[in-house]
Input
Amino acid sequence: MATRNIAVIVGSLRKASFTRKVAHSLIELAPAGLDMQIVELRELPLYNEDEDTATPPAAFTAFRDRIRAADGILFCTPEYNRSVPAALKNAIDVGSRPYGKAAWAGKPCAIVSVSPGAMGGFGANHHLRQMLPFLNMPTMPAEVYVGGVAAKFEGERLVDESTRAFFQGFVNNFAAWVERHAA
Ligand code: FNR
Output
């Protein structure tokens, strides 16, 4: 079976982000044949259609190329005001243009939302779930909400064993989802 390259998008820019810790835990649990790497959003300027000319900002081109090269996308997002953080929305917007040539198109994907709160980023998860079909992305139906995240880690280490088992099952299912929808 070919190795599938997965772009992992982390919706938090915070250094000590819990969402990033969750993403790293999922990456560690990736089965053979799934190569998962975080694609950073920090350098992406805010999308401005005026600048998206025949020679767009270099950061836009680099990001779009990186997404185009991926076989699948894993979105890991915190929740900001019951939606996705602006950094993630901006990345989705950047990758969605030029019109008709979205880098996201056809990429199988899954959503993991994360919060220290009890609801696990439900609002962010579903706002994202609303965007992805518009971008023609086969979105894994499984709903993954990681609530109470602060208690699941000691430093960088995932210490909640039931969460680890759940993550393992999820990432295995995601690998199968990517395989099923592979171009
Ligand atoms: C939050 N937070 C938050 N949490 C939540 O469960 N629902 C929400 O709607 C919000 N809204 C919100 C808005 C803004 C502007 C901030 C900065 C934070 C709290 C959030 O879950 C918490 O800061 C997480 O730790 C953010 O994720 P990372 O950075 O740890 O990955």
About this structure: The longest strand covers residues 4-10.
